[in-house]
Design goal:
Elements (H helix, E strand, L loop, with lengths): L1 H27 L3 H27 L5 H9 L5 H25 L15 H23 L6 H15 L8 H7 L10 H26 L3
Helix pairs in contact: 1-2, 1-4, 1-7, 2-6, 3-4, 4-7, 5-6, 5-8
Length: 215
């Protein structure tokens, strides 16, 4: 249960960082570019720290598609996948509620920020495929100590170069639906984002297999 709690805690703090910095960004500036920059910098640093400190405990997935890919590759069990996915999703919702509380907003609020369109779904596929590719190549190359910095760097980069601003995480996507803020996503857009993320994860796994010649 320590591992499951670490996944819950890590995802809680990750979403609190993403949503909280988004709210702070809109409080500090009306410039959308500056808002995205503030959100990105906070997320990159926060994600690096969370992976660094919690990876030795749980692996620091904080992401159901990362755990799913581990399951597909027999690096984890079906029971652990279910436990992690539930903990990650619950943590993401808790993180959004925590961010709302810190900024005196309603604890539970549905986002009204619509994020839809084939271009955004392509962006999510690219962001998630890249994330899975990076993690699995570093594992194959036995460069585990680089994962915190490289993953955080990829997410930070993808905030700017993908049209979707790189959610790349079903649990985080669900959590962000609970905050009507800069980082939010309308509930009706969530399932399509998750479908794109799942497809992106499979693409990332396929690219890993090709590059590592793993049959």
């Amino acid at each position: 249960m320590k591992k499951v709690f670490a996944e819950f805690l890590g995802t809680t703090l990750l979403v609190a960082i993403v949503v909280g910095s988004g709210i702070m960004a809109t409080n500090l500036s009306q410039d959308v570019g500056v808002q995205l920059l503030i959100n990105t910098i906070s997320t990159v640093f926060g994600l690096y720290v969370l992976i660094q400190i919690l990876a030795p405990i749980s692996g620091a997935s904080f992401n159901p598609v990362v755990t799913l890919v581990d399951l597909i590759q027999n690096r984890t069990s079906p029971l652990t996948f279910i436990q992690y996915a539930l903990a990650q999703t619950a943590g993401a919702i808790t993180g959004a509620v925590l961010a709302n509380a810190m900024f005196s907003l309603p604890l539970f609020e549905a986002s009204t920020k619509a994020r839809s369109g084939s271009n955004l779904y392509i962006g999510e596929m690219v962001a998630t495929a890249g994330l899975i590719l990076i993690i699995n190549l570093l594992i194959a190359q036995e460069k585990l100590t680089l994962i915190p910095a490289v993953v955080a760097s990829w997410i930070g980069s993808a905030y700017f170069f993908t049209s979707s601003t790189s959610f790349a995480n079903p649990a985080v996507t669900i959590g962000r639906a609970f905050s009507d803020s800069f980082a939010g996503i309308a509930p009706e857009c969530v399932l399509k984002f998750i479908a794109a993320q799942l497809l992106g994860a499979l693409i990332g796994l396929g690219l890993t297999k090709v590059l590592t010649n793993d049959k």
